Each structure stands twice: as C-alpha cells, then as structure tokens.
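Reviewers of the previous submission asked for a worked example of the structure-prediction workflow described in the proposal, so we include one complete record here. The input consisted solely of the amino acid sequence. No template or homolog information was supplied to the procedure at any stage.
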Amino acid sequence: MRQIKIYLFISMISVFCFALPQVRAEEGVPDAKSELASDKQEIKTAKQEIVQNAGEARSEEKRLREEMVQATQSGDKSKAAQIREQLRVMHAENVQQMRQDKKGLKEAKRELRKDAKETRKNTRMQRKPDRGDNPPGPKGGKGTNWKNPPGPKGGPGASRNRR
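From that input alone, the workflow returned the following structure tokens.
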C-alpha cells in the first residue's frame, strides 16, 4: 500500500514537472511563480510523507526485533529464525523503497530548479534595456534610475553618460 502511494506521488510530481513548461508558455510568467510555489509546497509535503513512512517502517522493524528477542529468550529458535528472515527481507524492502523515494524527490527538486531558472530567464528577457537618455517620469516613475534621477536634475540628455 505504501509503495502504491509513493508511486502515485512520484508520477504526480513528474506530471507537474513536465507539464509546467507548456502551461507557463500559455499563461505567462507571473503565473509561473505561483506554480513554482505550489511545486515547492508539494515537494515539502512529499518529503514529510517520506519521513513519516520511514518512521513507520522503523517502528515495524523494531516490533519484529522485539518479537525475535522474546522468541529467543523463550527458547523457540525456529520462530526466532523465521522472524529474523522476515526482518531481513522487510529491512531490504524498506531500504530499497527509501532509496527510490529519495531519488524521486531529488529528480523533482532538479526539475523545480530547472523550471525556476527558466522562469528567471524569461523574466529577464521581458525587461527593457536601460536607456540613460530617457527623460525621467514622475517621481520614481518610468525612465527614472540612478543615471537619470527625477526632478530638476533629470530631463532629456541629463544622463551621467552625456555630461
């Protein structure tokens, strides 16, 4: 049951990671930031779920170890050997599952970083280049920057590049 949940989670993350670039192209950049935030939240909840599953697996292994110790103390060696074998198999499955979970989480984080980088690149490309010869607009408005301050110091050709 746990493996099915984890498989569904990993498939859900991969769908989001591969579908988001297409959605961003249609919706625009401002919406991409909210999508990135929701992806971050999903990764965080997935990480919490992985930690919870690992804790459950540890408690189950601990319970089996206690049963094995009780069987050994009571002198039932065949039951202790059976529990030991069951514990060995369970531990191997849990370790393999944890590795798969971490790998899936790592891939999801990698995709998130890639999408964030792409979003930053797209926002930079949409910005207009700085023009030092623009007249300043209202205080702090369009055309105002450190080279061309607002007010009487500014104006057409007042850029430091032209003085």
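The CA atoms of residues 72 and 100 lie 34 Å apart. We consider this example representative of the routine output the project will generate in years two and three.
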